[in-house]
Amino acid sequence: MRIGITFDLREDYAREGYDEEETAEFDHVDTILAIESALQSLGHMTDRIGHARALAKRLVDGDRWDLVFNIAEGMHGFGRQALVPALLDTYRIPYTFSDPLALAVTLHKAAAKRIVRDHGLCTADFAVVEALSDVENVTLPFPLFIKPVAEGTSKGISAASRIRDRTELRQGCDRLLARHRQPVLVERYLPGREFTVGILDTGSASTVLGVMELVLRAEAEPDIYSYENKKHFEERVDARLATDTVGLAAAELALSAWRGLGCRDAGRIDMRCDADGKVNFLEANPLAGLHPRDSDLPLLARLKGLPYNALIEGIIASALSRVAKSVA
């Protein structure tokens, strides 16, 4: 097949003046090279398209592909991850990963938590602060945890995200509202073990790749998988498979959340335990990072004995199953 690849490169946005944190979700060129190499090893021809604006121009110019491998995150708005899939849907071009609805819903963490909660699945109690005055309406018991409602890669999360009283809540929300220009998600703080669960495939066919526990080392910012801890993952975090009873509970909850949110092909669900050891849904990552060495999903695949090229092959196979159904 002729497969186009849509993506956002950090280098492109850095040249436009965006800083390191603002571009943290975007890819370096070595990720694109790895995906390209994997696709070519499977016998496909590849075409680098780039971001949503580049895709729009190519589509208007008449370019078409048998399939698009989409990892474009977008820059602005709650629909930023949905832009590329929406354009491709308009031209009826099949693509990997989730559709615009799932990508928009999961990007907005409060919306995702509402859907997960409506499915009867466990997630920490929460509130949304859209303006500083909303802090007075938050009645959740302390300690709390705050983060931007629609960011990834632990952006906006630091040691100051754990909130002990109303003064800290007001100061923290003020800081995040100013920095990220979006609402703040306020959750009951979960002090227990943290997991990320890899999921493969779609709907009833989806399965758990594995459960990876994230254990902070002594030199890490304590208690929180912060932006700095994630940035310095190799020095600050130990990643290990979790196959005990709690790990199995995380797998079950993650699979139910994945299906309930309508995610497709491959991705991750992040979980954390409360003080009683009960697993809670944190957020969904339907456009999980795919750097062959540094990203969590390929790392989890390696721990389970699944090579990178086989992971990419599985993603393509899942996407093509939709194409087969659409023409059946």
Automatic annotation (TrEMBL):
Pfam families: Dala_Dala_lig_C (PF07478). It comes from the Bacteria. Its EC number is 6.3.2.4. Keywords: ATP-binding, Cell wall biogenesis/degradation, Ligase, Nucleotide-binding. InterPro entries: ATP-grasp, ATP_grasp_subdomain_1, Dala_Dala_lig_C, PreATP-grasp_dom_sf. One of its GO terms (molecular function) is D-alanine-D-alanine ligase activity. Residues 113-317 form the ATP-grasp domain. It is an enzyme of class 6 (ligase). Belongs to the D-alanine--D-alanine ligase family. This is D-alanine-D-alanine ligase.
